[in-house]
Amino acid sequence: MSSSDQATRPKIEKTDAEWRKQLTPEQHYVTRGHGTERPFTGPHLKEKRPGTFACVCCGHPLFDAQTKFESGTGWPSFYAPLDGNAVIEHSDRSLFMTRTEVRCAACDAHLGHVFPDGPRPTGQRYCMNGTALTFTPKDQA
User: Fold this and answer.
1) What is the sign, positive or negative, of the torsion defined by CA atoms of 82, 84, 85, 88?
2) Is 49-141 CATH 2.170.150.20?
3) What are the tens digits of pLDDT across the range 64-114?
4) Is the preceding peptide bond at 116 cis, omega within 30 degrees of 0?
5) Neighbours of 9 (CB within 10 A)
6) What's the pTM value of the predicted model, to 2 decimals?
């Protein structure tokens, strides 16, 4: 999807009842309720195949598996989103601290947080909830 496609495409909006019908209770808690799965419990933590990680809510492509790295935190971590239109960032002042929340640019689903302690080339660690993601292997794309 090009930058102009994302800029002109309206956000995906559904009622809470529609999201609850589509998602599992844990997916809803994480993506719509801004929750966090327990470390080392979510899917995709050990996924190493080439492919694309997308939003569990709307299917919007978010991260290329080539940018995934082992952070040791217990959540899938990436050093960069797929492109500049994949995610949006918001200031999160919950839990008595300021963090940068990462959401899906297409449907506003909560994905996780980004921290400035990642590897090169970006120095960023996009620490994502595996529950908020789907994975499509490259050979099935």
Assistant:
1) positive
2) yes
3) 999 999 999 999 999 999 998 999 998 877 766 778 999 999 999 999 999
4) no
5) 13
6) 0.89
For strands 133-137 and 110-115, give the pairing.
Answer: unpaired
The beta-carbon contacts of 9-15 under 8 Å, at least 24 apart in sequence, are 9/106, 11/106, 11/107, 11/108, 12/57, 12/58, 12/106, 12/107, 13/107, 14/107
Nearest C-alpha neighbor of 112 from the set 5, 13, 71, 48: 71
Instruction: Give the C-alpha separation, 89 to 26, whole Å.
Output: 22
What amino acid is encoded at 4 in this protein? S
The ranges assigned to domains in the chain are 49-141
53 residue type, one letter: F
CA triple 94-98-100, angle to 5 deg: 95
Choice among 55, 57, 104, 127 that is catalytic: 127
Chain mean position to CA 107: 11
Q: Is 57 a catalytic residue?
A: no
